[in-house]
């Protein structure tokens, strides 16, 4: 009795890695986990889970990409001739995201997903208010320093959203709906990008109606300089402050969400709570007993719909030999002994290379888009310009002949130096929506439709390859049509690139890390992978800034396209060599006796077996092993005319001399045409010839 009233303190410690075969779970808990999976898989797409996760992801995307909207207005008011200020703001925002992803990923695995879920939105709300109210005080506070500090704090909240939303969505989803749910959440990223642009546009139009902004010729006519700065200063504050509204709405629901039963059972070792919380979200399955149902281990679980009674679970059986979560032995076993660093390397490097190109295109790309849309070369700042002779004109002070520093930083279109800040902001919004937002939303929406119809790991590799070709083509097209009437060709190519980003690599680098890691380290590994991506985005910002500052060619953007193609090719290599298949090919028998092939998504528990579990199924990892498999396939197709083993296919007996592993079978030794392929510790040994 005393043991039940005062449980062993060790049971309060989180369980660590369960092993590739889940041998760290006692038989009773294994049965409970099977029951939980059964209950989860009875359901499909869940609006409640999606709404909670998507609302936060929308907020974070809005706040992150609002940079594209507000930097021109900030430059106009506070630093019209300092080009490095935008770099500092973006750098510290992204650095904050890295901190948030690493910190909250670890904390979510350690203390529970929902204990952290909502805190990151509090950070976003507080920092949004801080950014929107930033001022210089009585002339003794650096506006840039204070603004950057609050953007760094906001970045922490934005970064925290990635592992939390991804993993909570993944764990609460049924196996069949997991990819659709995750991609639907990620759809909010391009929607948030577009929303930031639209809010900025509506605020600008509203201020124009209220204050005749266009008639004041702000930026050109210095006679209204102070009035213009006051109006423009209010625009960016409203745009940023609006980002707190969806965060406030989302946070209400987040504090009433529960940890998924899989985490509660596997890590927290609380099977009763696991069943209770699952039924709170999905309801109880149909059973003969209306008050509750016995799980396979005999735990009685309350049904919230019928108000049954909750019976305390029976005393637990002795624990299996499982290391404690985040202990050095457990980390060593998971990452080193069982070689799951392969997975982490694959997810981290693919996300890194993806974000180098994606954020190089999507963050602070005002000047880039203006250059792509330009139909003429840059116009020199001379007295031939009509705006030179406007009363109170600021244009003569920009001219190099008058020792000026050139166009101010808010004026991003060198072909239209007489544009006011109002006209510049209108042009930037139009170019961003048509080139980036619409294509990105279309790409993400298409992926939601095809998420379960395409082999996701293979498509990640293929999409990187397609993007490599697209970047090379875009670079070539740019060099051919830049600053001519045919510049629309480059714009179309860039839009296609953004479509492919979201139809493939950008979405999949978010989804796959939420699927392939075990429950005890799923948030941590997703956070590390996402942080690697944000490091890539920092690299992208620095690369683009360096090229624009140090390479004075008028067609330097073509170099950026060609350079980014290299990163896409490296992303294809890492996704091909280091990531597992998250689906299997299954052959079903039809009534007429034929075999119909379909894709079946693997469960989180199966994928949680990690590297060793995947190798046992016949998958290969590493460049050398993958290349050996490719050569072997080619050799047999050419020399034998037979289909070689594909460890991803299951449920089909051998035919024509070939052999296919049955689902869940161990294929460490697969006989093939007089030889055997031996998989030993992930190394593929080909038969002697």
Automatic annotation (TrEMBL):
The keyword Transmembrane applies. One of its GO terms (cellular component) is membrane. The keyword Manganese does not apply. Pfam families: Sugar_tr. The chain crosses the membrane at residues 62-80, 87-108, 114-134, 141-160, 180-205, 235-257, 341-361, 432-454, 460-481, 488-514, 526-547, 559-579. It is a multi-pass membrane protein. Its main location: membrane. Keywords: Membrane, Transmembrane, Transmembrane helix. InterPro entries: MFS_dom (IPR020846), MFS_sugar_transport-like (IPR005828), MFS_trans_sf (IPR036259), Sugar_transporter_CS (IPR005829). GO terms for molecular function: transmembrane transporter activity. Residues 49-583 form the Major facilitator superfamily (MFS) profile domain. Residues 1-27 are annotated as: Disordered. It is found in: Membrane. PANTHER family: SOLUTE CARRIER FAMILY 22 MEMBER. This is Inorganic phosphate transporter. It comes from Cercophora samala. The lineage of its organism: Eukaryota, Fungi, Dikarya, Ascomycota, Pezizomycotina.
């Amino acid at each position: 009795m005393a043991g039940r009233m005062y449980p062993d303190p060790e049971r309060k410690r989180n369980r660590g890695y369960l092993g590739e075969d889940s041998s760290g779970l006692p038989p009773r808990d294994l049965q409970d986990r099977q029951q939980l999976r059964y209950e989860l898989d009875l359901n499909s797409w869940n609006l409640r889970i999606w709404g909670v996760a998507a609302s936060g992801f929308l907020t974070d995307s809005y706040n992150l990409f609002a940079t594209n909207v507000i930097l021109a207005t900030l430059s106009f008011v506070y630093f019209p001739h300092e080009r490095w200020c935008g770099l500092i703001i973006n750098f510290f925002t992204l650095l904050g995201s890295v901190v948030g992803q690493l910190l909250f990923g670890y904390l979510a695995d350690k203390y529970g997903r929902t204990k952290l879920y909502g805190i990151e939105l509090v950070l976003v709300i507080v920092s949004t208010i801080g950014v929107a109210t930033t001022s210089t005080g009585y002339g003794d506070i650096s506006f840039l320093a204070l603004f950057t500090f609050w953007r760094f704090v906001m970045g922490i909240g934005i970064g925290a959203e990635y592992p939390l939303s991804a993993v909570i969505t993944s764990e609460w989803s049924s196996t069949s709906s997991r990819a659709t749910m995750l991609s639907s959440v990620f759809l909010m990223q391009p929607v948030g990008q577009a929303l930031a642009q639209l809010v900025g546009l509506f605020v600008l139009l509203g201020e124009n109606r209220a204050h005749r902004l266009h008639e004041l010729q702000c930026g050109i006519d210095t006679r209204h300089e102070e009035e213009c700065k006051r109006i423009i200063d209010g625009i960016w504050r409203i745009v940023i402050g609006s980002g707190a509204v969806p965060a406030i709405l989302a946070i209400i629901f987040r504090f009433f969400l529960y940890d998924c039963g899989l985490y509660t059972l596997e890590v927290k070792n609380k099977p009763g709570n696991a069943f209770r919380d699952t039924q709170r979200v999905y309801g109880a399955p149909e059973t003969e007993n209306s008050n509750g149902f016995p799980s396979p281990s005999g735990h009685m679980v309350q049904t919230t719909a019928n108000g049954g009674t909750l019976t305390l679970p029976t005393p637990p059986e002795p624990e299996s030999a499982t290391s404690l979560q985040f202990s050095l032995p457990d980390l060593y076993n998971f990452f080193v002994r069982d070689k799951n660093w392969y997975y982490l390397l694959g997810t981290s490097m693919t996300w890194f290379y993806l974000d180098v190109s994606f954020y190089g295109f999507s963050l602070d790309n005002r000047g880039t888009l203006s250059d792509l849309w330009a139909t003429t070369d840059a116009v020199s700042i001379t007295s031939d310009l009509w705006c030179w002779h406007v009363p109170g004109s600021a244009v003569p002070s920009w001219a190099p002949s008058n020792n000026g520093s050139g166009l101010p930083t808010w004026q991003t279109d060198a072909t239209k130096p007489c544009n006011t800040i109002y006209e510049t902001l209108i042009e930037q919004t139009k170019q961003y929506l048509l080139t980036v937002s619409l294509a990105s939303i279309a790409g993400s929406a298409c992926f939601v439709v095809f998420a379960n119809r395409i082999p996701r790991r293979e498509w990640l590799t293929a999409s990187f390859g397609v993007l490599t070709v697209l970047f090379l083509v875009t670079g070539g097209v740019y060099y051919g049509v830049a600053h001519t009437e045919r510049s629309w060709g480059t714009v179309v190519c860039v839009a296609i690139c953004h479509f492919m980003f979201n139809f493939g690599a950008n979405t999949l680098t978010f989804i796959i890390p939420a699927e392939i890691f075990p429950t005890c380290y799923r948030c941590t590994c997703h956070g590390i992978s996402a942080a690697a991506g944000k490091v890539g985005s920092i690299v992208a910002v620095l690369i683009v800034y360096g090229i624009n500052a140090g390479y004075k060619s008028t067609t330097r953007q073509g170099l950026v396209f060609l350079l980014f193609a290299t990163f896409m090719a490296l992303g294809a290599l890492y996704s091909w060599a280091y990531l597992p298949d998250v689906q299997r090919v299954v052959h079903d028998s039809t009534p007429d006796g034929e075999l119909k092939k379909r894709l079946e998504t693997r469960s989180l528990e199966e994928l949680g077996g990690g590297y060793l579990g995947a190798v046992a199924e016949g998958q290969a990892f590493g460049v050398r092993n993958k290349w050996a498999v490719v050569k072997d396939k080619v050799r047999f197709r050419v020399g034998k005319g037979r289909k070689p083993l594909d460890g991803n296919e299951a449920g089909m007996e051998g035919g024509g001399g070939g052999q296919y592993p049955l689902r869940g079978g161990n294929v460490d030794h697969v006989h093939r045409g007089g030889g055997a392929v031996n998989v030993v510790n992930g190394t593929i040994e080909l038969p002697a010839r």
